[in-house]
Design a protein that fits this description.
There is one protein chain. The chain contains 14 helices and 14 strands. It is α/β, with parallel strands linked by helices. The protein has two domains: 145 residues, ATPase, nucleotide binding domain (Nucleotidyltransferase, domain 5); 185 residues, Nucleotidyltransferase, domain 5 (2-Layer Sandwich). The strands form two sheets. The protein has an eight-stranded mixed beta sheet, with helices on both faces. A hairpin with a 3-residue loop joins strand 9 and strand 10. The protein starts with a strand and ends with a helix. The mean pLDDT is 96. The structure holds adenosine-5'-diphosphate. The site of adenosine-5'-diphosphate has 14 residues, from helix 10 and helix 12.
Length: 397
């Protein structure tokens, strides 16, 4: 079956067409600047990128363009829409309602709407994507795959905050965690790479991209993760602060004369390695350049970022009473030998020994620990689209 995977944001829509049997990507692309002006970039299977600047006033038009690109006589990859057997949608927040992927019906749409105040920027955009696909491909089954679902196995002691329990009961304020599809995919893949039983393994997954999170996966179940009610908690990220004393918010509001939205903007857009570097960049390629040239801001940003990751790994080893395997994934985790070195050098107390030569790997599956390292360290490229396609296939075949 050919499965269309849709990741719909407020002004962009990413897509991939995946053959569920071969797991090959038949075509992929992105519609950008929806509602602003518009552009679609499409890459057929093994062909070159095709860029088309064209008006995209809304998501309905974006889906039409995706279908046009996929079925184009010269550069398309399928003869007609009928070849698409199912659509898999990435949904950011599933609240406590969704513990796994589900086939989308009216009830599911209503439930996604109901948890939208937990992800006001993301869920409404995801729903627009669902509606647009429903209109363009009536009758084609669709599946919702939630970023939060994999983390729903966390025990109460890991997901509760130390705030009045009534606030949890009334508003469901708790840790949810995100990047679940990636944490699930990578932890399973790690067990396969090591030839170990997934249900009898303690794994820590470090998803280090622009957004970054760590998770602890014990015996096939997520037992803790660093992102919280929203994706702002936990690690220091590209532009997000991660953990801070909650009082910092009021303090900067008073000192800088900001309202709540402006203070939130500082924590989401101006902080992280970008803010720490002194506004040099949120991109680790720039920060690494600066690091090796001796730029103090870049050195500060990278060291502080790595310290936080190492601290989380230590705490998750405590949470699981040990760790067998540490995985690095996403843009920085897959491509950043420097970051992996600095983090692992802090983990000697766990028996982690990194092989500096093996660690020079970029974007490929590889074991990067020494043969006598007590804890295996792996680079495992994530593939959230494939994971979404697999769930969709499972539910629709
Ligand atoms: P997201 O999906 O959250 O936007 P990604 O997983 O694509 O993020 O990761 C983006 C990050 O990966 C950027 O900070 C980028 O600098 C970093 N990155 C990509 N390639 C490299 C590389 N070769 N070396 C170091 N960092 C890299």
């Amino acid at each position: 079956m050919k499965i269309l995977v849709i990741n719909c944001g407020s002004s962009s829509l990413k897509f991939q067409l995946i053959d569920s049997e071969t797991e090959n990507v038949l075509g992929k692309g992105i519609c950008e600047r929806i509602g602003i002006d518009g552009r679609i970039v499409f890459t057929p299977g093994d062909g070159d990128k095709i860029t088309n600047d064209t008006a995209i006033p809304d998501h309905n038009r974006a889906i039409e363009l995706v279908i046009e690109a996929l079925t184009n006589k010269d550069t398309g990859v399928i003869a007609s829409l009928d070849e698409i057997g199912a659509v898999g949608h990435r949904i950011v927040h599933g609240g406590e309602k969704f513990t796994k992927s589900v086939v989308i019906d009216e009830e599911v749409i209503k439930a996604i709407e109901e948890v939208s105040d937990l992800a006001p920027l993301h869920n409404p955009a995801n729903l627009i994507g669902i509606e647009a696909c429903k209109k363009a491909m009536p009758g084609v089954p669709m599946v919702a795959v939630f970023d939060t679902a994999f983390h729903q196995t966390m025990p109460e002691e890991a997901y509760l905050y130390g705030i009045p329990y009534s606030l949890y009961e009334k508003y469901k304020i708790r840790r949810y965690g995100f990047h679940g599809t990636s944490h699930s995919y990578v932890s399973k893949r790690a067990a396969e790479m090591l030839g170990k039983d997934y249900n009898n393994l303690k794994t820590i997954v470090c998803h280090l991209g622009n957004g970054a999170s760590v998770s602890a996966v014990k015996d096939g179940r997520c037992v803790d993760t660093s992102m919280g009610l929203t994706p702002l908690e936990g690690l220091i990220m590209g532009t997000r602060s991660g953990d801070i004393d909650p009082s910092v918010v009021e303090f900067i509001m008073k000192k800088e004369g900001l309202d709540v939205a402006e203070a939130e903007n500082v924590l989401n857009k101006k902080s992280g390695v970008y803010g720490l570097s002194g506004d040099v960049s949120s991109d680790f390629r720039d920060l690494e350049d600066g690091y090796f040239k001796g730029d103090k801001g870049c050195i500060r940003a990278i060291n502080t970022f790595c310290y936080r990751v190492a601290k989380y790994i230590g705490s998750y080893a405590a949470a699981m009473d040990g760790v067998d395997c540490i995985c690095f994934t996403a843009g920085v985790g897959e491509n950043g030998p420097l970051v992996r070195n600095i983090i692992c050098d802090r983990l000697g107390f766990l028996g982690v020994k990194i092989d500096k030569d093996a660690n020079e790997v970029h974007g490929k599956e590889k074991e990067v620990s020494t043969s006598d390292s007590k804890v295996k360290v792996l680079v495992v490229p994530t593939n959230e689209e494939l994971a979404i396609a697999r769930d969709t296939n499972e539910l629709c075949k």
